[in-house]
Amino acid sequence: MLVNGVRQPNEYKRLKDEGFIIIRVNTSDNLHIIRAREAGDSFIEADLEHETESHIDGFSVDYEVSNDGELLHTYDQFDKIMRELGVQPVSSREIMADAFDDLKVI
């Protein structure tokens, strides 16, 4: 099971108490803002200081992933974690490459 967007201490504690593996996905603030705006969000720099964002960096995590590069690099990091955990990766470079091969430019 994947829980996306754990930002509050009570959410974090509940997941840890239930044995979830916590993975922090990091990106630079600047890139975070750019991606949010490109997705149509009216995200501004002040949003990074919102109370819901203030706890994230203090959580102890099992793994950290960098999301500052290309999407395939991020997937590779998740695949490595999944292999370490003995779980079949579902986002392998080969699967993604096949998916991109099927795209057609119009």
In short:
This protein has 106 residues and is mainly alpha-helical.
Give a written overview of the molecule:
There is one protein chain. This protein has 106 residues and is mostly helical. It has two domains: 1-68, no CATH class; 69-106, no CATH class. The protein has four helices and two strands, in the order αβαβαα. The chain has helices spanning 9-17, 29-38, 71-84, 93-101; strands at 23-26, 63-66. Strands 1-2 form a two-stranded parallel sheet. Strand 1 (23-26), helix 2 and strand 2 (63-66) form a beta-alpha-beta unit. The longest helix has 14 residues, at 71-84. The mean pLDDT is 81.
Outline the biggest β-sheet: 2 strands, parallel
Q: Give helix and strand order, one letter per element, not per position.
A: HEHEHH
Structural class: mainly alpha
- Assembly state (oligomeric): single chain
Pick out its properties.
106 residues; mainly alpha; 2 domains; two-stranded parallel ribbon; 40% helix; 8% strand; P-loop_NTPase
Topology, please?
Layout: H1 9-17, E1 23-26, H2 29-38, E2 63-66, H3 71-84, H4 93-101
Parallel strand pairs: 1-2
